[in-house]
Amino acid sequence: MVFSNKPLQFIVAVLVACLPLFSSANTATDSVHAKAEVKTESKVLNIKEKEAEDRKEYIQHHLLDTHDFHLFSYVDDNKEEHHIGFPLPVILWDEGLHLFSSSQFHHGEKAAESKGKFYKLHHEKIYRVDSAEGEIQLNNENHHPTNVKPLDLSITKNVFVMLLVSVLIFLLFRSLANSYAKNNGVAKGIGRFFEPIIIYVRDEIAIPNIGEKHYKKYMSHLLTVFFFIWFLNIFGLSPLGINVTGNIAITACLAIITYIITTLTANKNYWGHIFWMPGVPVPMKLILAPIELLGTIIKPFSLMIRLYANIVAGHIVLGSLIGLMFLFKSWFGSTLSFGLSFAISLIEVLVALLQAYIFTMLTALYFGSAVEEHHHEEEAHH
Amino acid sequence: MEIPKIIGAGLVVIGVGMGIGRIGGSAMDAIARQPEATGKIQTAMLIAAALIEGIGFAALFAV
């Protein structure tokens, strides 16, 4: 075999050049391990374990819904921790309505008092405690709190962002609709960007899947779902740290709406295909009926899981890559972390659009199956 | 019981990867044969890929 020498030389040169980097990055820990006694060594390990736990906790915390809008925190010269953000209203139903600001929780450190009752945060969930100094009692078996959990109707971060996006979408598309009236049917400003997307949803998603005859009554839902998911996904990539479509409750609601609309607008052919599949022998009809019935629930279920899992997976990957910086603790780690997370962020921008598209597309497909007018019987006679 | 679960999820993910890979490869072939049908092929490819992807995520959540 003949190798060209040039690339080989280059690789060797790069490896030799990088060698001091790796060795210098490792010497610090090596010398610590070599010099340290058994006691300090276990201490070092403990610190490492704690840091790994911290990173894990940070990522998990980012995925959770919170009761305050937390932007960032920093430690000042006096080693005091400062949190920058703003509180959101807490609405509880616990033998009466409780309404107070989430700033009373002091980021989970203190219990909040309302109408003689005390509440405390545990992993961003609100539990009732006995007094201002009361602690949350954990179950010994599974470490779940045993305290009373009041009905929580708070405007949390996710709810706040959803309201924000709803208002944004409403104003944006209202102004687009108005600009048609003003400019003799020509879009203006930001509408020039959104008009082709709306046309795309109509011509490439709605009409091919639902059909010319019925597509109009579903357009409003398809457009709303598309832009709602897309905007929320993009918001989730912003440094504000919002993870709305990565919350399974929200994707479940979107999927349930799709299921309800499909079920309520379905024609008799749709139900015929579920309970009495045409064109197959009678024993097969009996076997197919429960499977098809289950299929109607599996379809929205897969919609829910797909959107949720894609967004959560993206956020976990990005969080882990940012965590690399604290793992390596050298310029090498930071550079690697920046490069990789930048690349993944770009992919996530694509995924944000793709997931909105797929959700809309499959929703349209299910609507299409609900209103399809079938021709199987005529074909069977040929 | 943790290790069999992880291995099982890994196997499912390998299967999902192969499945999506085949869909992507076949779509590439189809586009090369009929470049004028690119839009339709892409749509069908994305739907099929999304359906398989769902199984992969279900496996990951079972771990």
Automatic annotation (TrEMBL), chain B:
The record marks 53 as: Reversibly protonated during proton transport. The chain crosses the membrane at residues 6-23, 44-62. Its main location: membrane. Keywords: ATP synthesis, Cell membrane, CF(0), Hydrogen ion transport, Ion transport, Lipid-binding, Membrane, Transmembrane, Transmembrane helix, Transport. Residues 7-60 form the V-ATPase proteolipid subunit C-like domain. InterPro entries: ATP_synth_F0_csu, ATP_synth_F0_csu_DDCD_BS, ATP_synth_F0_csu_sf, ATPase_proteolipid_c-like_dom, F/V-ATP_Csub_sf. It is found in: Cell membrane; Membrane. PROSITE patterns: ATPASE_C. It is a multi-pass membrane protein. It comes from the Bacteria. Key component of the F(0) channel; it plays a direct role in translocation across the membrane. A homomeric c-ring of between 10-14 subunits forms the central stalk rotor element with the F(1) delta and epsilon subunits. F(1)F(0) ATP synthase produces ATP from ADP in the presence of a proton or sodium gradient. F-type ATPases consist of two structural domains, F(1) containing the extramembraneous catalytic core and F(0) containing the membrane proton channel, linked together by a central stalk and a peripheral stalk. During catalysis, ATP synthesis in the catalytic domain of F(1) is coupled via a rotary mechanism of the central stalk subunits to proton translocation. Belongs to the ATPase C chain family. This is ATP synthase subunit c. It comes from Flavobacterium cheonanense. The gene is atpE.
